[in-house]
């Protein structure tokens, strides 16, 4: 420091030169006086010599003071170096702590729930780094102030050094406290992980217990259905069936001789000879349910398994919107959903290739599931082109808007659509076909979101009393809405065409939906009680009783 600023020594040299100059002036004045007065020359010279000696002594004293000042500067430099060593050690400790934080972050990276908390930690570390940057700036300002203090005053220099040291010590204490808090926070997070793992194990136990309870509940429901069946056998009376809105029975007796006679979706490769025989057999089955007499029940029991895809489905007309598809609705190249042969729900897809307006039939190319090994009814996912077949216009439900991916088509639930879910669906269905035999049970939902990674968000729908097929948002099974993950997409059974109502229709709640009754299971419409018919293999199938 003193080598950089030798200003005090130069100032003393200038002072000495001034004193000597002043002495010379006095000497010259004395000589003039001697010339004029001729007295006291020796005394004046002695006095000048004494003053010169005193000035030399003062210069020596000034040099000693300079040496002391240099020694003090050296002490200050030593203290600064010691302080820098402490700062370096502290930075090393800080780096070690950062390494520990990074290790903890890597270990806990798999836990998605704690990502937000780790981001907060990173923000805190950024604050620490910002404080370090400020400390560095403070140190630089201290150096500048020290240089200025050396120029101005030694006392001020030491005072500022002491103040700055105290400030740095306080900053260091604050940083140590922050790191202690961070370590405590890490310990708390580890404890939280342990608690969450324990809670997860308890939740799994509760889920297992709930599953066992659900199995018991299903067994109880089966027993109740058997009891109700026995009661209905004694109380059953013939009732008049109402007219059918949509019949999946194709005019087989009239078209059996034609080469392109429509085949049922469940049996795509049946011969024309088989169609003629079954068309004749159906003449006694497809009567419009005049009554449920004993003769009709016997015929249904014998024919329901062979002709379930040709049997007549009866449904009521909607109150506000006509969902019926007409010949003018069909366009070549469009994809439509068709009713299947399992339970008459629109979960089959076909692309229109040709329209026969004169015969009210349409030639379609089937869209088959990409994974043909799936034993579960598939209504969404990847589909590939299959065989071409001519179908009656009565078998079509609604238009579908798939996503084209090369030769494949992708059908996914879209936001705002209404779909039916398999209520009892589980991942084990595909491996255990015995677990998902019809009749199926369904829940109706509205699709509120779709994401390739998170899945599909749905809100449950409940029926509005007093209307045929009006549904609104309502909790089902204690749940209002939920997310269906991408690996649970087979839980979707089929799309249900619907129209959102504005609330002006006969007091209908605003925002509710009128669903297509032909795509809604009769058990959800609650039009009448269901009459179970026992099949040859002992299974029971619901035959709806339509009320006048």
Automatic annotation (TrEMBL):
Transmembrane segments: none annotated. It comes from the Eukaryota. The keyword Isomerase does not apply. Residues 311-505 form the DUF3444 domain. Residues 254-280 are annotated as: Disordered. Residues 80-131, 171-237 form a coiled coil. This is DUF3444 domain-containing protein. It comes from Arabis alpina. The lineage of its organism: Eukaryota, Viridiplantae, Streptophyta, Embryophyta, Tracheophyta.
